[in-house]
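We treat protein structure as text, and this decision shapes the records that our systems exchange. The remainder of this section carries one protein's record, kept here as part of the documentation:
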Amino acid sequence: MLRKAVLTKQIYVTVNNEIGVLNKLADYVADRGINIEAVAGHEVQGTDKARIMMVVEDVRRASDALKEKGFTSIDVREELLVELDNRPGALKMVTGLLASREINIRQIYGTASPGDSPVRVILSTSDNQKALVALKKSIQK
């Protein structure tokens, strides 16, 4: 069920919560020829801000493009990228494994594809290194 588990870099951008801001981000990254592989976002409650998270194929170039366009609140963090079989129970296996190792999931989102294409899940945990080791061991079984 678990196909792959690796560390990846994720860009966090805090922006003004305005119509079209995600379009601008996507435009600036696309203009550099950089593919966005995963994206999620949410409002920051009680503020006029939003937070966008992106996994891209070239973090440095994407960050530079955004900075050049005036986005100043950019943070890059190491997260987990997990590829799973696209079938019932795949996510349960990952969450169960992490819970059994007492690893807290702080943030999670995924990308879905139809049919037999794998599902990609981006995770931030209380201990990404410990989670990576546990997940990689489960691939070998």
Q: What stands out?
A: The first strand starts at residue 2 and ends at 16.
